[in-house]
Design goal:
Blueprint: H1 5-26, E1 34-42, H2 43-53, E2 57-59, E3 70-78, H3 80-88, E4 93-98, E5 101-106, H4 110-114, E6 121-126, E7 137-140, E8 146-148, E9 154-157, E10 165-169, E11 176-179, E12 186-189, H5 194-197, E13 200-202, E14 207-209, E15 217-221, E16 245-247, E17 256-258, E18 271-274, E19 277-279, H6 281-287, E20 293-299, H7 302-305, E21 316-321, E22 332-343, H8 355-365, H9 373-378, H10 390-399, H11 405-416, H12 421-428, E23 432-444, E24 448-460, E25 466-479, E26 484-498, H13 535-545, H14 553-556, E27 560-580, E28 583-602, H15 607-615, E29 617-618, E30 628-629, E31 636-660, E32 664-690, E33 695-696, H16 701-706, E34 709-710, E35 721-722, E36 729-749, E37 753-764, H17 771-774, E38 778-786, E39 798-812, E40 824-828, E41 837-842, E42 851-864, E43 869-881, E44 884-888, E45 897-901, E46 903-920, E47 924-942, E48 966-969, E49 971-975, E50 981-984, E51 990-991, E52 1003-1007, E53 1012-1022, E54 1025-1035, E55 1038-1040, H18 1081-1087, H19 1091-1094, E56 1100-1102, E57 1105-1116, H20 1119-1122, E58 1127-1143, E59 1154-1155, E60 1160-1161, ...
Parallel strand pairs: 2-5, 6-12, 18-21
Antiparallel strand pairs: 1-3, 4-5, 6-9, 7-8, 7-10, 10-11, 13-14, 15-20, 16-17, 18-19, 20-21, 22-23, 22-61, 23-24, 24-25, 25-26, 26-27, 27-28, 28-31, 29-30, 31-32, 32-33, 32-36, 34-35, 36-37, 37-38, 38-39, 39-42, 40-41, 42-43, 43-46, 44-45, 46-47, 47-53, 48-52, 49-50, 50-51, 53-54, 54-57, 55-56, ...
Helix pairs in contact: 8-11, 10-11
Length: about 1200
């Protein structure tokens, strides 16, 4: 079925051209005359017929123009002006043609005409960006005179006196009432009415009003996103603004979830759609400039998302980008810019010991008995790690009598006085900074509009890495005739990055020995070879190999290069053709290419290259001979990786939208879609590479990666043979193809009762080959009741009350390469064969099906007090079957597991969104937005390929009968008299050893994913100043505590401060719960089971927190000032991000800089500031 994808694409293009040409030449020309024949019909009937025969649209106020008055007309071949004169000659209606708009207004009386000169009320109406607003109704309450703005936004009333009230209104904008004074001209600005605008829903396949759909939607406008500079990824900016969308920044947690979890091994995040075509988060971050986004629609229930089929069970985020608007003046030019100053990581957050604390602790636990000198030194022939650390060397020298106590104390004190924290911050970190510049142009005419933008983003990270990104976006819309429209979008993004590398650090910088200095007082690099190998062993290896093994961490970055580049280009075309009244053909085609390349080069001076070379070198057989090198001795290591991705989408659909007898509204669509995605990966690794000549020295990679080198100077593994692990070349390919049929329909009666239905069928090469898995239709049904349209709902307090109910199915497909109907092969090398062999890594599964999620949703939308308070409440239940994952097989088949359908998960929850206009006066406005979401889930069935025990239960996230992302812990009742942790078992007995524990003993303590989440936004505006604050919160989830993990062995890196609080002497069990230190690891394991403490329920703590995600102050400079320098708008702002206001733990843990499952702290950056500006030119 999919081998004809190219033919399908070509057929679409051919059909596109033929249909366009046929319909283009069949249309009436721009200047074609009009034929009308009506007798005693309502005026509105004639106006509709004129609109059908021409490109003109009528704009009028129903309260002022009697469109039900009867008219008679019989004309043929007349121009638009003559037709209007004939139609309106016997009415009290006047007209004015402005572009393709015909503005109707009441005719002025003779008395009014005599007063025109004295009572003129003239003005211009503009939007918040300063653009003219045509079609705005301006109405005098006293004289009843009405006017409509033209394309320049201009209006004129001729019967308004000082003190009269004038009403200015437009659909989608907030109405205002202005009291006339003695001015000769007025400039009026209308603001968007978000309540009205949010009632327009873009699903990606169609655009419809909310009242004609029963689905659960949320809509975010661009004005809510533009100033949120915490991330250049538009999806990251949505945190706290959308009910149902969970954004969890904690490491070890799922970042984006919409209405809970519907998959455990396939995609978990919502499907992202850009201008009607599916994409992914990386592409969104690369291609989409947040300043180019017009709106984002969230499809959350089955009716909303089922149209996207086997990709939408997790919800859909549909991003609509900006388009051009007709401009009667020169193009609109807008410039946006900001700079974020983000500081350095706060290393004090790690709670590590100082040099003095560490050396004292090392002295306390030093044990010559458990780690005698000769035993430690003997390990140097088989171990590549350092065997003697500076603090140990002093203590060993003292115990061996090589130095006296005074000398030892002096040397110990010298180590205590050292502190490398400042050097780490100076040499390996920098103040992070993000800058962005965006320039856009837009404009056009009635027949062609355009929107073009360029953006640059520079990102200097705190680890000294950097990146730069260039984005170009061009959108053009063509109106060839009244019935044929075409839109073309081209995007290109080019991003480069430079990574700062310090290869082969002994530990992370957070755990680095605090006395290990990187430079002397003069700034000269110091060797830390003592952290890599025992000094006599290193010298011996250098003498045998004739290679230097010194190690200067401060210089290592200068021996390396690491760069990456990414180029993404996208072309999107859409065609719409009005075939018949109410019937429209829509075609969509998108082609996208992505080229990702990266390379890392380690010169021959880098420790990584020198160390590996020694590991593949055999010592000389005699003092007069030379060592034998099995790897090149010149050049460095050159590693490349590349990914080429090609994706395309072809969609053809018919859309029907018709209102019958004024009460019956019918909307439906049906279509087909074909998608393909091909990714090709190629990685290389060359040794002996010369960057100047781009050549490398040959070596026997196959032999070194199979048989290896026996008895090298230093072994690379645990045996006496060094084996080469990295392959010279690796390849990979993922090919995904989809074919879909879909349809949906909606019927609305009298704007009160709406019924929706949809169905879709997907076929894919990712599913099994059985017919039962390929032919599984997804369907949904919904109904809504607009109560405010009922005659009994007459309260002036209620502006909108709409009840919604939906039920249906969504889907989720397997990840490419994770499993499918065919065997998955991996290449392998073996010394028995001369060619590359292949291993069946996973067997094919002909019965593999996509995950299927049913969703029931009940919701209500409301608005009261003239839309001062509006919002929605939704309650939902989701049930996912056929969960994808690795299911167990009978071992006699040759495999223990295969990728298949293995379980079921249920979700339930509710969402609340409330928007309010708290205060609205001429000079002061206060708005508030509030979102609250709750979700809980439970895995009702899961087939495991390995049996659970008490140990694996502590790490497993998905266990039958429990919620996803569960955390379990032992019930630790404290320490015994020996300083070892004691657990209370499920049966009430006590346990200290692993042999005494069972699978029933771990206790469920909670989940790592927030149960409650949302945000609160407040915005205050006064005389050009705007203050806004967004508070986000995540509540009801848990995390493992950051506890000491060092209880046995030698001190080889820095330790947690809590190590000092461990049990030391009998009786300490009354004041501490930190187990004692036991030097010998074998003894430690035989006496206790440490996870009883480290993974106890007592060390599972709340991860709840609330933060001010952004606090912004902005000021728009008055137009009377900036107009003198040819600016229409100039605003500046300052912003502070990520201010912690509350966290529900007493250990100073910020859950956003923390691995909540492992219980470890990550690099924490302080709150950062941003300054920015926005300029629009006249």
């Amino acid at each position: 079925m999919f081998k004809n994808a190219k033919l399908t694409s070509r057929s679409f293009i051919c059909s596109f051209v033929l249909v366009s040409c046929f319909l283009f030449f069949s249309q009436t020309s721009y200047g074609q005359n009009i034929t009308l024949k009506f007798k005693d019909v309502p005026l509105k009937t004639v106006l509709k017929e004129v609109q059908k025969q021409t490109d003109y649209r009528f704009v009028y106020n129903d309260n002022l123009i009697n469109v039900n008055s009867l008219v008679t007309i019989n004309t043929s071949g007349l121009s638009i002006e003559k037709v209007l004169d004939e139609i309106l000659s016997k009415t009290k209606v006047a007209y004015k043609i402005a572009g393709k708009q015909i503005l109707l207004s009441p005719k002025s009386s003779s008395v009014e005409k005599n007063q025109q000169d004295n009572n003129r009320f003239i003005g211009f109406v503009k939007d918040s960006n300063g653009d003219p607003l045509p079609g705005v109704t301006v109405f005098s309450a006293k004289s009843k005179e009405v006017a409509t703005t033209d394309l320049q936004g201009r209006f004129e009333l001729k019967t308004v006196r000082a003190g009269d009230a004038v009403n200015i209104s437009m659909i989608g904008m907030k109405n205002i009432i202005l009291v006339a004074d003695n001015r000769t001209e007025y400039t009026i600005k209308l603001e968007e009415d978000l309540v009205q605008l949010q009632n327009v829903v873009v699903t990606g396949y169609q655009t419809l009003s909310r009242e004609r759909s029963s689905g659960s939607f949320s809509v975010i406008r661009n004005t809510a996103l533009e100033s949120k500079t915490s991330s250049m990824n538009i999806v990251d900016r949505l945190e706290g603004l959308v009910p149902g969308l969970s954004v969890n920044m904690s490491a070890g947690a799922e970042k984006f979830l919409m209405r809970g979890l519907t998959s455990i091994n396939a995609a978990k995040s919502p499907l992202v759609v850009i201008d009607g075509v599916p994409s992914n988060y990386d592409v969104v971050s690369s291609l989409v400039n947040p300043n180019d986004v017009e709106s984002i629609t969230f499809l959350k229930d089955a009716t909303a998302a089922s149209i996207w089929g086997a990709s939408a069970a997790n919800g859909v985020i549909n991003i609509t980008t900006k388009v051009g608007k007709p401009q009667v003046r020169k193009p609109k030019v807008t410039y946006n810019s900001f700079v974020s100053l983000r500081g350095k990581p706060d290393y004090s957050y790690q709670n590590m010991m100082t040099s003095s604390q560490l050396v004292d602790a090392a002295k306390e636990v030093f044990s010559v008995t458990d780690y005698p000198w000769n035993t430690v030194i003997a390990s140097s022939s088989t171990a590549r790690n350092p065997v003697i650390y500076p603090h140990e060397k002093i203590l060993y020298d003292l115990s061996r009598g090589l130095i006296n106590q005074t000398t030892a104390d002096s040397r110990i004190d010298s180590l205590k006085r050292l502190n490398n924290r400042e050097q780490i911050e100076d040499y390996f970190t920098q103040n992070a900074m993000v800058s962005n510049h965006s320039l856009s142009f837009s404009g056009g005419s009635d027949y062609h509009t355009y929107y073009a933008s360029y953006a640059y983003t520079g990102d200097n990270k705190s680890n000294k890495s950097s990146s730069s990104k260039h984005q170009i976006n061009i959108r053009q819309d063509f109106k060839f005739t009244k019935n044929i429209k075409l839109d073309l979008t081209a995007n290109i993004s080019y991003e480069t990055g430079e990574q700062y590398l310090v290869p082969d650090l002994p530990t992370t910088l957070n755990n680095y020995l605090p006395y290990a200095m990187f430079s002397d007082n003069s700034g000269n690099a110091l060797s830390q070879a003592y952290l890599k190998k025992y000094e006599p062993f290193r010298k011996d290896a250098e003498n045998k190999s004739l290679l230097n093994l010194d190690y200067f961490p401060m210089l290592e970055n200068s021996y390396t290069q690491n760069s990456s580049s990414s180029l993404i280009a996208r072309v999107n075309a859409g065609l719409s053709i009005n075939l018949l009244p109410g019937l429209q053909y829509q075609g969509k085609f998108q082609y996208q290419k992505e080229f990702d390349k990266g390379y890392a080069y380690y010169s021959k001076n880098s420790y990584k290259v020198r160390d590996e070379l020694v590991c593949f070198t055999v010592a000389p057989a005699s003092p007069t001979s030379l060592p034998t090198y099995y790897l090149p001795t010149t050049g460095g290591h050159y590693q490349t990786n590349s990914v080429n991705n090609t994706s395309w989408t072809v969609r053809n659909q018919l859309l029907f939208d018709k209102t019958l007898a004024e009460k019956h509204q019918i909307t439906s669509l049906a279509g087909t879609e074909v998608r393909g995605d091909l990714s090709v990966m190629h990685d290389t690794y060359r040794r002996g590479f010369d960057m100047q000549t781009q050549t490398y020295s040959p070596y026997d990679e196959k032999a070194l990666s199979t048989t290896g080198v026996s008895s090298p100077i230093i072994i690379s593994g645990t045996s006496s043979t060094s084996i080469l692990n990295s392959k010279a070349e690796t390849f990979g390919e993922y090919d995904s193809r989809f074919f879909s049929l879909y349809a949906n329909a909606a019927y609305t009666y009298d704007k009160r009762y709406t019924f929706n239905g949809s169905i879709r069928m997907d076929q894919s090469n990712l599913f099994g080959s059985n017919k039962s898995t390929q032919f599984k239709p997804i369907w949904s049904f919904g109904a809504s009741w607009n109560i405010t349209k009922e005659k009994f709902c007459t309260s002036d307090l209620i502006d909108n009350l709409n009840l919604r109910v939906t039920y249906g199915f969504g889907g989720n497909s397997p990840r490419p390469g994770s499993g499918g109907p065919f065997d998955i092969l991996f290449p392998t090398n073996n010394s028995r064969f001369t060619e590359i062999g292949y291993v069946v890594a996973l067997p094919g599964n002909a019965g593999l099906s996509w995950e299927r999620t049913s969703t029931t949703n009940i919701g209500i939308d409301f608005a009261v007090l003239k839309n001062r308070i509006s919002g929605s409440v939704d309650v939902y239940q989701k049930k996912t079957t056929d969960l994808l994952g690795y299911q167990p097989l009978d071992p006699t088949t040759g495999w223990y597991y295969a990728y298949g359908n293995l379980g079921q998960i249920d979700n339930k929850g509710f969402e609340v969104m409330i928007n309010s206009v708290n205060i609205s006066t001429k000079n002061f406005i206060w708005n508030t937005g509030f979102t609250l979401s709750y979700n809980s889930n439970r895995l009702t069935e899961i087939k495991r390929n390995t049996a659970l025990d008490f140990s694996s239960k502590m790490y497993e996230q998905f266990i039958e009968g429990y919620p996803a992302y569960s955390l379990f812990g032992f019930d630790n009742i404290g320490l015994n008299q020996n300083g070892n942790p004691v657990a209370r078992k499920a049966n009430g007995n006590e346990a200290t050893l692993s042999s005494q524990l069972s699978i029933d003993d771990p206790i469920f303590k909670g989940v790592t994913q927030p149960k409650w989440y949302g945000g609160i936004t407040n915005e205050f505006s006064w005389n050009g100043f705007t203050l806004s604050a967004l508070i986000v919160y995540n509540l009801g989830h848990m995390m493992r505590n950051d506890v000491n993990t060092f209880y046995t062995g030698r001190v080889t890196e820095n330790l947690k401060e809590s190590f000092s609080s461990r049990w030391k002497v009998a009786g300490d069990e009354a004041i501490t719960d930190v187990p004692k230190y036991i030097a010998n690891t074998g003894t430690s394991n035989s006496q206790r089971y440490l996870p009883i403490y480290t993974q106890s329920v007592q060390n599972i703590i709340s991860a709840s927190y609330a933060k001010i995600r952004d606090f912004t102050i902005s000021y728009s400079i008055p137009k009377k000032i900036i107009s003198k320098i040819y600016m229409e708008n100039l605003s500046v702002y300052g912003q502070v991000n990520n201010i912690m206001i509350w966290k529900n733990n007493k250990f100073d843990i910020d859950p956003e800089f923390y691995n909540i499952r492992q219980g470890t702290r990550t690099d924490k950056t302080p709150p950062f500031i941003t300054i920015g500006l926005k300029v629009t030119l006249l």
